[in-house]
Amino acid sequence: MYWSGKTSITMFGKKREVILSIDWEEDANFSPIQREAYTNFMSNMDEIMDAVELGIFEYYEDNYEEYRDMAGEVEADKIAPEISTIKELGNLVIPTQLIIRRVRKNGVRRIGLVCDCTWDTDNGVGVRIENEKVEEVDYQDIVL
Fold first, then answer.
1. Taking every annotated instance into account, which residue ranges of this chain make up the domain DUF6985 (predicted)?
2. pLDDT for 7-41, tens place per residue?
3. N or C, fewer C-beta in 10 Å, the chain?
């Protein structure tokens, strides 16, 4: 079960409204750790999002040639152009959802960021954040 609303985040220098989803326990309460995860994210958004943007940039650099090959010559520059700066990713990636994950026994503050992207419209990009640190960037599945 989850609660859903809206919040704003800043990514690639643009303020964007995204869906905010919070997993909840059976008793329909958010845990103190979930509240702390959201509060810490919002308080440290600039620093966290810098790490998110860098993580997505590195992921893109590692994978874009494969997407260019799949797209073919005509579409390659539209969906997976060669880029050299993080800022250029702002034209390719749009955040859509921030998920405050259910707390596990280890007490880790877990957040997932879901983004649409031009190079993989089916799977998008997901960023797994634990205790305010980027842990993984891959398909959206890692955070859903």
1. 2-143
2. 999 999 999 999 999 998 766 678 999 999 999 99
3. N
Q: Residue 62's CB: how many other CB atoms inside 10 A? A: 10
- Give every strand in the sheet of 125-130, ordered side by side: 2-11, 14-23, 93-100, 110-117, 125-130, 133-138
Q: How many Å apart are CA 35 and CA 25, to the nearest integer?
A: 13
Given 3-state DSSP classes, what are the helix, strand and coil percentages for the chain, each rounded to the nearest 5?
40, 35, 30
Dihedral (C-alpha) 139, 140, 142, 144: value to the nearest 10 degrees? -160
CA distance 137 to 103: 20
pTM of the model: 0.95
What's the pLDDT at 134?
99
* CA pseudo-torsion sign 68, 69, 75, 77: positive
